[in-house]
Amino acid sequence: DAKTTQPPSMDCAEGRAANLPCNHSTISGNEYVYWYRQIHSQGPQYIIHGLKNNETNEMASLIITEDRKSSTLILPHATLRDTAVYYCIVRGYGGATNKLIFGTGTLLAVQP
Amino acid sequence: NAGVTQTPKFQVLKTGQSMTLQCAQDMNHEYMSWYRQDPGMGLRLIHYSVGAGITDQGEVPNGYNVSRSTTEDFPLRLLSAAPSQTSVYFCASRMRSEGTEAFFGQGTRLTVV
Fold first, then answer.
1. Quick one: which of A7, A83, B50, B87 has the most CB atoms within 10 Å?
2. Under a CB-based contact definition with an 8 Å cutoff, are residues A89 and A100 in contact?
3. What is the tally of helices (H) and strands (E) in chain B?
4. Mean pLDDT, chain B, whole residue set
């Protein structure tokens, strides 16, 4: 599985968009990009995932560059409850691929 | 709507004791896995299972055993607890299909003294 690089921490003002970058320059063609977050030592929570195209759901948007070597998670209107550690994970498919390999993530602090 | 249930939520063990952390899911998910999370760090994969009767090792399997006799349950056994196993343990499950999300339990906080 490809490794990912994320900034250790970011700040965002409440109500503004939070843009969390992730670099995955060694990603291969069959690997998805997943985003999870962990709020205050709770179990991680799924946010969104994508393969090639940009994706949007009720929580966030995922922008994947054309060469797929990086992506950005966008929380359109951050609230205080979005303060969490955000993990960008690359995972392939096929075989025993329950291997979500977590890095250290980005601690997003939403400021009032 | 239980999802993934872990028991117990908290546990204190003495060095050398054994115990089993329980994990159950009611979503008929084929894939289940166990992670540990040490303070200030990300989750590390201990063991995983792709279906009943099939298990495999993750990144940090030493000192832990698993079995998968049913689809619903995936217990994690600590054979002889050590202080280095003090951690928060998370169980996760997901469907077999590609591109599916994993659901996590709320964790078991284990302290070995």
1. B87
2. yes
3. 0, 11
4. 93
Give the model's pLDDT for residue A70: 95
Helix residue ranges per DSSP H, B1-113: none
pLDDT at position A45 is 94
Beta strand extents in chain B (DSSP E only): 4-7, 10-13, 19-25, 31-37, 43-51, 54-57, 64-66, 76-78, 87-94, 103-104, 108-112
Positive or negative: CA dihedral A109, B2, B4, B6? positive
Do the Cβ atoms of A98 and B32 come within 8 Å? Answer: yes
Rounded CA separation B34/B92 (Å): 6
Q: Is A101 touching B (CB cutoff 8 A)?
A: yes
- To test the contact with chain B by mutation, choose from A41, A100, A102 the residue with the greatest count of B C-beta atoms within 10 A, namely A100
Tokens read off for A112: 């009032």
User: Of B105, B108, B97, nearest to B26 (Cα)?
Assistant: B105
Distance, in Å, from the CA atom of B107 to the CA atom of B5, rounded to the nearest integer, reads 9
3-class SS at B65? strand
> What does chain A come to in residues?
112
Say if residues A13 and A111 touch (Cβ distance below 8 Å).
Answer: yes
* Digit-coded pLDDT (tens) for B56-101: 999 899 999 999 999 999 999 999 999 999 999 999 999 877 667 8
